[in-house]
Design brief:
Structural class: alpha+beta
Mean pLDDT: 92
Order of helices and strands: EHEEEEEEEEHHEHHEHEHEEEEHHEH
Number of strands: 17
Low-confidence stretches: 1-29
Number of helices: 10
Radius of gyration: 21 Å
Strand order of the largest sheet: 1-3-4-2
Length: 415
Amino acid sequence: MASEVHLRLFLGAALLLVLNFGGPIRAMSGDLPRGIVSAPPNSGPYVRTPQGCMVPYQAKIPTTDAEFTMVPVPGGRFKLGSPATESGRGTEEGPQVEIEIKPFWIGAYEVGWGEFNEYTQMGSVFRHFKQQKILPITEQNKIDVVTAPSSVYEPKIPYQFGNEARRPAITISQYSAKQYTKWLSGLTQEFYRLPSEAEWEYACRAGTSTAYSFGDDPRQLGEYAWYQANSEESTHLVGQKKPNPWGLYDMHGNVAEWVLDGFAADAYEELARQKNSADNQPMPAREAIRWGTKLFPRVIRGGSWDDSVSRVRSAARIPSQDDEWKLHDPDFPQSPWWFTNGYGLAVGFRIVRPLDTPERSQRERYWQPEVDSIRSDVDERIDNEGRGQRGVSNAQFLDELRNWKQSKAQRSGGK
């Protein structure tokens, strides 16, 4: 197998020691990418690959104090979906299909407001840069263009449960989550994106085949998840419950999480047909992605603070209902970045970084809207209503952003 996971100190309190109390894990060695070391570390989890050993790492979003933690996931094979005998199972979870996964890093936690608010502030930054003719959009850099929403003008909606740095961001559309990952990729010069549905379930299961990553008994769920029975109708700060066997927190409950795939009740039946026509070999995860062809429904995973035990299972699939989740948005067109009500109050995301990075031109598919209605709504909001902005996110933008922030600090006396 191309990768091998070593789970020393990967469980329970030992993992907490490695990730939370050991300080930032930079894992840099010579010219190796972040998160790769040339030899197995003396302690802590790692994944051996031909490129080196993948290790956990913490990083700050450049020019900010916002941090995120990434955990390595080994490559391997697993059965996507649930067996027919699983309690609470939906028919859209089958038949099970064997999928082959390549190694990747995934966020140890759901994206919090501390991270997401840095992205939303880009709206005012892009506006200032445009006014000052700093790094204008050109034919040469248009591949790096991202959009950002205006500052939150109804904070009582997204922030109704609080906006602490480690409270998971909610009311996030899939388009908004994708643009966040593109913005982060441009700043870090690393490739971040949403997980595919298969990658998400593989990471959630963490080598298990039971209903939950800890077993089949829902009576244990309160140790691992915030859900309907214990959430008190609210999100909670990330990382307060036990992690799964690979060190990932809140994969069950707290906020439901976007993946790349469009939703179809018969999606796994189609995957099974494709797999059987390919000499019955495991289907590569990349080929298993069901790219969306319409605004909704799209797949949301993990369940939330507002869900029952069956909806937070590892295999549970939730279809998005974007129109219903924007009913309280009085604007036309309604925001492509935010939800305002309903289950949208429970929707967030976490990020992944694949070990094998595609060519720059191929990354756009993971970041851009797949339907014309999203593009037209974005253009209308930005060009005609002035809500939201465009800018580029790349190494040159990072230099300009640093210079601008330093200049602002000097003008304000360092305050």
